[in-house]
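One such shown below:
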Amino acid sequence: MSVTYYVALPFLKTEDGVAAGQAQEMPSASAAIRRAELMSRDPLNAGALAFRRTGNPNSGDFGEPSILKSFGDVPNTLDES
């Protein structure tokens, strides 16, 4: 059984640049994008992005995350965070 998760992820300002904050799972791609945009407006955050990831939660097999939209100062890929 394959499931797609939609996530909004803020990036916090740090002395060394940015660091991933607390991710929030959302019910849809559009909700994740809206939440990421709101997160990016928080003055403590450097930016935020919305992504999706599909896989099988029973087996733990998941594909690579796919960035839906980014806002502000965030890594180009999730591997960089």
